[in-house]
Amino acid sequence: MTTLRDLARHLELSVTQVSRALNGHDDVSEATRLRVEEAARQLNYFPNRAARRLVSGRSGVVGFVEQSFAGIEREEILFATVTGLSEEFSSRGMQFVLHLAPKASGPERPDIVKTYDQLVRGGSLDGFVVTGPRPGDVRIRHLMENAIPFVVHGRTEEAAPHPFFDIDNHGLVLHLTRHLGALGHRRIGMVSGPQDFSYVGARQRGFEEGLAEFGAAAAPEQLRNGPMTEDFGMIAAVQMFSGPQPRPTAVICGNLRIAKGVYRALSALSLRIPEDVSVAAHDDVVAHERPELFFPALTVTRASLSESWGPLADILKEAIEGKDLKDLQKISPFSFLEGRSTGPARA
Asked: How far apart are alpha carbons 188 and 200 in whole angstroms?
């Protein structure tokens, strides 16, 4: 079996140089790193992780704890998350593992911290990726209190005291609300995710702020929160447009699946888009649907979920290395694509 010393001798480099190249240290040039990695592949060199941990105190392995599988939509996102993060950590010389906790656990319950403790005490993981944060999230609080490196996809709050990579959830719904407000819409509905997630609260604040700029306010009967699914979008739209309350002239959807359900409901109710109702949504580029394939083409903000994996891997790697918190917090911008699903408010 090829050893680190064999690899160094083959490359005519020192063992230290080869080790630092394989571990992605900044003081090694890109050319040297690529040369070392290519030689490692050719000679079938595999790092001894037990030895690495003895030298550096780290295993080179990070983890992601998942509690349950909640439907095909959740499974799609989980698959995209695991495959995307695995690829990015692998390219940085690290290993990424998925750990499935008992289904009875949940991020809002204290028993989930036992899973993290078991993995850390076992000495096999250097840090964690956390997703789906909630305000006061016990997972994040526990990891912070015990100085365990981690990164969150999202934030517990706007001025979060932890490492994160997030999209501007407040800003993207504010942008959609302003777009609709400029078209004369004042009664705007919103169909979004479960209220206990932090990103949902950020989006609702953007929605309320946008309406206030036009002298309007969010009506409780025009807000719907639930699973980010097509079925929920359809049910929510039927409820909005079938009751005695004033109907909205526009609807903002949390994702494309919800938008697809809203389209179906409006069609069943013989309401035209955008002549009777304007529809806009956020596109995280995960579902098979595409905004340009809607009829009419959907107006969206867009921030691809896949563009999160690289920054999350970088931030966790830097958190493990002890970088300052200010360098471990990043917000991704979004783009805006105007389709044909939004138009002037009907009188």
From this structure: 17
